[in-house]
Amino acid sequence: MRLELAHPEFGRGDAHFAAGMDREIVMRQTLGDLGTAIKLDQVPVMLGLPADSPDRRALRFVPAALRFRRTLRKGDMLPRELVDGSPSWMPKPHRVARAVRRLSLAIGAPDVPKDVESDIPAVCRELTRWIHDRGLLGQTRVDSADLIQIATDAARVDWLCRAIIAVQQCLGALARTAAGRQNLQQSDAARATARGLRDAVVWASARAMAADQIAADTLAALRDTPAFSARLWPKIAELRAFALDIEPLMERWDVARGRRGGPTAHDLDQMLRIVSVRWADFDPALFDLDRIRRDLPGRNGGSVSAWGNSDAE
Asked: What average pLDDT does the segment 258-273 reach?
């Protein structure tokens, strides 16, 4: 399913949609040597789109889609999170391979080859035969595709949990900066700035722990993979949206801690400014998949024409 937009301006040059530091959605475009940024709600006015036009309906997908990807262009695939709730991103193969090894240990299977990353499907086929030969699941049948999906979802959760730990470390550094301010007024202001981020980290940590518990229940996943996915995918979607939303702060944090001597006071001040713009308050509804999808065209009796093509991503 693609973002279908008919007006030629949407396909001109490098035109694309993105979220600014304050989360406001804009259409960016380079005109000569100048870069332009037009607020999303002003785009239909600027282009003279009729009130009932398919383009106006399609534009309603843009804010939701940008919860799960960094940019969006005319003709891009819409994130699968909006279509069927499944994750639209893939972890790196070495993470999936590590998840396959953990899966084999959880069910007592022989050690998988060290080079599992080179042929994950073949390894999963061998594990499937081992499971069936020993009647581990009784009459329940699984195939290698189920094992690959379970391992891939577990790898997604592992990556997200590690991302949350990095955010926790960043928050700790910001808290130490606030505590170290000699000026009490500055210290209180820094603490207040980081409060919204703290609330977000507490929420994300709890969601990550819940997702990790589901992903660790290997036998339940094997016995009923669709039910396993139905429980896990919404949590993966919420945490992925959170990780993308906090990415500008974490990019600055990665650069700062990579310097010799670690982050400077100036680095931390810059990060506090980002937090003050994007994370002054925390609303978990920003990442609630059901809420994100609820008001999309075609969800509650609305038009489905804005979905465009039904090609699978």
From this structure: 82
Q: What angle do CA 204, 164, 73 make, to 5 degrees?
A: 85
pLDDT of residue 310: 31
Report the range of poorest mean pLDDT among 50-59, 216-225, 266-275.
266-275
Written as six digits, the tokens of 201 are: 């980290």
Largest CA distance in the chain: 69
Please report, for residues 33, 35, 85, 143, 148, the alpha-carbon distance to residue 95 in angstroms, rounded to integers and kept in the order given.
42, 38, 22, 21, 12
- Please state, in angstroms and rounded to a whole number, the distance separating the CA atoms of residues 56 and 295: 14
pLDDT higher than threshold 90 for residue 7: yes
Contacts 24+ apart (CB under 8 A), 197-205: 197/171, 197/249, 197/275, 197/279, 197/282, 198/171, 199/282, 200/242, 200/246, 200/279, 200/282, 201/164, 201/167, 201/168, 201/171, 203/282, 203/284, 204/164, 204/167, 204/239, 204/242, 205/164, 205/168
User: 3-state class of 112 per DSSP?
Assistant: coil
pLDDT at 188: 64
Cα 88 to Cα 82: distance, rounded to the nearest angstrom: 9
Helices (H), the chain: 43-47, 54-59, 62-65, 80-83, 93-106, 120-133, 144-180, 184-216, 218-223, 225-245, 247-257, 265-278, 289-294
Q: Stretch 50-78: mean pLDDT, rounded?
A: 93
Q: What is the pLDDT of residues 125-174, one digit of tens each?
A: 999 999 998 888 888 889 999 999 999 999 999 999 999 999 998 888 88
Give the model's confidence band at 301: pLDDT under 50 very low, under 70 low, under 90 confident, else very high: very low
Distance CA 54, CA 56 (A): 5
| Whole-angstrom distance, CA of residue 190 vs CA of residue 184 | 10
Looking at residue 281, its amino acid is D
Residue carrying the six token digits 């006015």: 45
pLDDT of residue 309: 33
Report d(CA 125, CA 308) in Å as an integer: 37
Nearest alpha-carbon partner for 67 in 14, 23, 13 = 23
